[in-house]
Structures are given as structure tokens and as C-alpha cells.
Amino acid sequence: MSKGAVGFVLGSVFGAAAGVVAGIMLAPRSGAESRAMAADVVNDAWDAAADAYEKGGAVVNDRLGGLRPTVDATTDELRAKIDLARERMDQLRSTLSDNVATAADAVTATATAVADKVGAVPQAPATEAVDVHVEEAAEAEPEQDGADEDAEA
């Protein structure tokens, strides 16, 4: 804390203590009467807070009670829409499955027809592959001196 904040807190505590002492010393009634008055004030404040809590609770319950049918109706509506969407998805899935099966049958039939046509065309006799080896021609290398001597001997 800064120096100013510490001074403010200490001053507030000292001022509150001085106020309590002055209030006790200058009180026009005795201690028992002051305590009874303080208890009455606290009881009145407690009763007022309890009444406000009860009234607030009643207001909240009334509003929730009025809101509940709206929430229930909206929930039912959303459930109906979800069920409808699921049914539509099932229909689309079924239609897609049927279309894929139909397309697969058509492709199979077309492939079979093409294979039959290809099989009906006379084919050239199969020839065996000939293994062709290409070798590079060796360049004439300059002869070494020792190779010349061996050749002459």
C-alpha cells in the first residue's frame, strides 16, 4: 500500500473509535435502554429484509411460472423440428443409397458390355517381348608402354 492509503485507513479506524467513545459518553439514555433501542432497530431491519426476500421470491416464482409454458412450448416445437429433420435425413439416406446402388448396377452393366465388345474384336497375336541389349562402343584407349612391350615379345 502507498503511504497515503495507509494514512487514510489509520485515520478512518481512529475516527471510528473516537466516534464510538463519544457516543457512549454523550448518550442521553442508559446502556440498557440504548441496547433495547438498538435491538429494536436491528429486529425491524431483519423483518424488513425477510419481507423483501419473500416478496422477491414470490415475484420470481410468478415470472418463472409464466415463463414455463413458453419454454415448454418452444421445447416441444424444437423437438418436433428435430424429429422431422431426422426423418428427412433418413429419407435422403435411403434415396442416396438407392441411387448409388442403381449407378453401381449401371456401371457394372456398361463395363460388362464394353468387355464383351473388346473380347469380340480380333486381337493381334501376342508376341513375346524381345530383350534388346544396347552396348556402348568401347572407345579406343591409348595403349600403355608396358602393353606395347608385351605385344612385341
Task: From the alpha carbons, calculate the radius of gyration and give it in angstroms.
Answer: 53 Å
Percentage of residues in helical conformation = over 70%
Please write the string of helix (H) and strand (E) elements: HHH
Please tally the β strands and state the result: 0
Low-confidence stretches: none
Mean pLDDT: 81
Report how far apart the termini are.
114 Å
For this entry, give a set of tags.
mainly alpha, 153 residues, elongated
Provide an overview of this structure.
With 153 residues, the protein is mainly alpha-helical. The chain has helices at 3-26, 31-120, 145-152.
Question: Quick summary of this structure?
Answer:
The chain has 153 residues and is mainly alpha-helical. Helices cover 80% and strands 0% of the residues.
What is this structure's SSE topology?
Elements: H1 3-26, H2 31-120, H3 145-152
